[in-house]
Design brief:
The complex is a heterodimer of chains A (116) and B (110). With 116 residues, chain A is mainly beta. Chain A is built from no helices and 11 strands. Chain B contains no helices and 11 strands. Chain B is globular, with a radius of gyration of 13 Å. Classes of the chains: A mainly beta (116), B mainly beta (110). Chains A and B meet through β4, β5 and β10 of A and β4, β5, β9 and β10 of B.
């Protein structure tokens, strides 16, 4: 079975450019999470969706970040305009949430973003 | 908000030595999960603990959840080079979201 699929795997861009990261969750999973990983801050939850609806976006750093989930099989995380401090690995994760305990998160392989 | 602290940040051991990482939450948790991330890889789920005082074992790995459901530990007996990576705990409080600790990076000298 295919796992969580993220693209691109690597992105190098210049400050000020728009960046779009994409995620396809595991089929049948109804919760989707975007995490950012840096050496300094570790794994930070940016936003999560349940049944395509954003539930908690309190981790989104600022208005330059936005995330959408137009359907159950696709989500995007957009940064506009990008800044060097946005350089990080961005992970998407999904699971089948049925209420109560969250259960195992299945992570994609990540998108490594470098903003020059 | 909910915070999850993990110590130590780094641990270097000789192959065959034991290893332990500790996790503490600022709030009572409904459950705690452990993940392993190999260098250059992504976090992979190891286990979930739900009950107060719960102890679970996976071969050389022993996981504990504290009585107050605010702390947890992962112990590896007789480390091997395949154990290299960063071990994260992740706690769930009153909402769906998991808050990750900063991880313990384990290196093993053969």
């Amino acid at each position: 079975d295919a796992g969580v699929i993220q693209s691109p795997r690597h992105e190098v861009t210049e400050m000020g450019q728009e960046v779009t990261l994409r995620c396809k969750p595991i089929s049948g999973h109804n919760s989707l999470f975007w995490y950012r990983q840096t050496m300094m801050r570790g794994l930070e939850l940016l936003i999560y969706f349940n049944n395509n609806v954003p539930i908690d976006d309190s981790g989104m750093p600022e208005d330059r970040f936005s995330a959408k989930m137009p359907n159950a099989s696709f989500s995007t995380l957009k940064i506009q305009p990008s800044e060097p401090r946005d350089s990080a690995v961005y992970f998407c994760a999904s699971n089948a949430y049925r209420g109560g305990n969250t259960g195992e998160l299945f992570f994609g392989e990540g998108s490594r973003l470098t903003v020059l | 908000g909910q915070q999850v602290m993990q110590i130590p940040q780094y641990q270097h051991v000789q192959e065959g030595e034991d290893f332990t990482t500790y996790c503490n939450s600022s709030t009572t948790l409904s459950n705690i999960q452990w993940y392993k991330q190999r260098p250059g890889g992504h976090p992979v789920f190891l286990i979930q603990l739900v009950k107060s005082g719960e102890v679970k074992k996976q071969k050389r790995l022993t996981f504990q959840f504290g009585e107050a459901k605010k702390n947890s530990s992962l112990h590896i007996t007789a480390t091997q080079t395949t154990d290299v990576g960063t071990y994260f705990c992740a706690g769930q409080g009153g909402s769906e979201k998991l808050v990750f600790g900063k991880g313990t990076k384990l290196t093993v000298n053969p």
